[in-house]
Structures are given as structure tokens and as C-alpha cells.
Write a structure and sequence with these properties.
By secondary structure, the chain is of the alpha+beta class. The chain is built from seven helices and eleven strands. The strands form two sheets. Strands 1, 2, 3, 4, 5, 6, 7 and 8 form an eight-stranded mixed beta sheet that branches. α1 packs across α5 and α6 crosses α7. The N and C termini lie far apart (51 Å).
Length: 307
């Protein structure tokens, strides 16, 4: 693995130094807690990339969509990082025991970001980690994309892929450092599309990123279920994977923090949903008993906005 570029090293340093505000997550009942893993690593140019998945159609939440590895907490004592790492092991085969991560790789837990609220009334805590590739272990190739990503097993998802982290602040595909634009680069503008939507009493920016997969290793399930295979077969026809919704918003906010830079596109300025979570709790929402059809309504948000 190449040394981190100056911009990447500064981004990791900012994330290490970040101290999140008091989290509403700790006041949520177990049934409302979830966490996702923002797993960063350096590519051969020293630029940061992030690991993403395409969810299988069998999964209960957000089937067939791009997502960060993660899921619901199992125990009230489980920390967000423990939840995110456990789910990453179950979904993509990344060992949650650091001693079992194949050398020369190791995972550093960096920081947690403000809690986001899913429309299914789950508090989702993003956990940022960095995948080191220590070249002094004598294990040959330390390129994460060539020697670790292919080892992962998409056990509960349809695919594992990667995306350039800084690009989540840009309107177009970025041209890698040291390369020049070619006449075939007209489709760089396919990277981002966004629009403002009315989410009850407020405006929300809906981000849609389209990640090019040409030239990268996309890890598929070693043993496919019928539903995993169906999604994987559909993915074979795509040149780009769409990343949108809460996953896109989390990645935009993480990149804003890491690079100390605002996006080229319009966006919501606040970080996470800590205040909204606390207001909803005050009106009796987000209770321990979680029903399968739980979803925030206009009335809930109107009441919360008046607090």
C-alpha cells in the first residue's frame, strides 16, 4: 500500500481528533439502536476509499440497496463499534476479532459520528475505522484492493465494492492524481444527481451517487442463496452502483468532517439527528416496543418541531 497522500493523512488526523457531541444514542432502548462501519483504507495512490455493500433481497431492511456494513445492536451493553464490527463480520466476513484480521492488515477504530435517524425509527451510529496495511510484516502484496477485499466473503450481501471517499464531496467523478482527462470522460457527470424533497416540515437534500465499478474487484458471495444470486445477477449488468438515502448522507457528512471541506452540491448543513431524536423521545416516540411497521408520520414530526 502506498503511503497516505498529504490530503488523506490530514483527513485521518481530523477524524482522530474529532469529539462528537453528547449522543442521544445512549438514551435509546435496545430495539432502537443500530450502527454502521465506515471502513476506510488507502489505495495504491495513497487516496482514501470506503468499503460498501449491495444488500441481498432477503434482508429485512433496505433489500437490494447499497449500504455501509452494519445493523442492529444485540445487547444493551454493546458499544456502537462492537455492533458495527459484529455486523461487518456477519455481512462481509471482516473478522471482528482484531487478532484474526489477516496480517499485515489491522483495523484502527477512529471515531463515532452523530447519530442519524432512519425512517424506520432506528438510531444509527456511524463508526469510522481505518484499515492499516503494514508493509513490514513480510507478507508480500499489501494492496488492500488486491489482497484483502477479495478475501472477504459477502455472506449476507450480494456484493462488496469500494468507492473514493473524497468523491462524496464532488459533482463529478474525480480524475485520479497523475492521470489526465480523456475524450471518454464525458460520463464523469454521471457520478452525482441530487434534489430537494419535502420531508414533512423541513427540506431534505436527497443525494444519489453512482459509483463506477470498472477496474475494481467486486466481491460476490462464495456460496449464493437464491436471493443473493438474483441481486448479484442484476449487478452484473450495471456499470455503476447507486448509493443514496441515509448511506449517502452519512458519507457526505463523514467526508465534510475528514477533509474540512463543503460539498460542491447543495446539502443539509446539520450533522446527524441528535436534536430530532431527543424531541421525538419527549413526545413518546422511539419506545422500547418496536413494531414491524414503525415509521415516522407527519403528525409525529409536527409535534416534535414544536418542542
Amino acid at each position: 500500500m502506498a503511503p497516505l497522500s498529504q490530503a488523506s493523512a490530514q483527513a485521518i488526523a481530523r477524524l482522530r481528533a474529532y469529539v462528537p457531541p453528547p449522543a442521544a444514542y445512549t438514551s435509546l432502548p435496545l430495539s432502537r439502536r443500530a450502527a454502521v462501519l465506515i471502513l476506510l483504507f488507502a489505495d495504491r495512490r495513497g487516496e482514501l476509499k470506503v468499503v460498501l455493500t449491495m444488500r441481498a433481497s432477503t434482508l429485512k431492511s433496505y433489500p437490494g440497496q447499497a449500504a455501509l456494513p452494519g445493523g442492529k445492536a444485540d445487547f444493551i451493553s454493546e458499544t456502537p463499534f462492537q455492533t458495527a464490527r459484529r455486523e461487518a463480520y456477519e455481512e462481509i466476513g471482516l473478522p471482528n476479532d482484531d487478532s484474526k484480521v489477516p496480517p499485515p492488515f489491522r483495523v484502527e477504530h477512529i471515531c463515532q459520528l452523530p447519530t442519524n435517524l432512519a425512517k424506520t425509527e432506528l438510531g444509527v451510529r456511524p463508526c469510522v475505522a481505518f484499515l492499516h496495511s503494514d508493509g513490514d510484516a513480510g507478507n508480500g502484496d499489501t494492496d488492500v484492493e488486491k489482497s484483502l477485499i477479495p478475501r472477504l466473503d459477502a455472506k449476507e450481501v450480494a456484493a462488496v465494492f469500494t468507492a473514493p471517499f473524497h468523491n462524496f464531496l464532488m459533482l463529478k467523478d474525480e480524475v485520479p492524481s497523475g492521470e489526465t482527462e480523456s475524450s471518454d470522460d464525458d460520463n464523469r457527470s454521471e457520478w452525482y444527481k441530487g434534489q430537494w424533497i419535502d420531508w414533512y416540515e423541513s427540506k431534505w437534500r436527497m443525494h444519489n451517487f453512482h459509483v463506477p465499478i470498472a477496474g475494481q474487484t467486486v466481491t460476490k458471495p462464495k456460496k449464493k442463496s437464491t436471493d443473493q444470486g438474483a441481486v448479484a445477477d442484476q449487478l452484473e449488468k450495471l456499470k455503476r452502483y447507486r448509493v443514496f438515502g441515509m448511506t449517502a448522507r452519512i458519507l457526505v457528512d463523514a467526508a465534510r468532517l475528514a477533509y474540512n471541506q463543503e460539498p460542491e452540491f447543495e446539502h443539509n448543513s446539520h450533522w446527524g439527528d441528535e436534536d430530532l431524536i431527543r424531541k421525538l423521545q419527549k413526545i413518546g416516540r422511539l419506545s422500547p416496543i418496536r413494531k414491524p411497521d414503525d415509521e415516522l408520520t407527519r403528525e409525529d414530526l409536527l409535534r416534535a418541531s414544536k418542542i
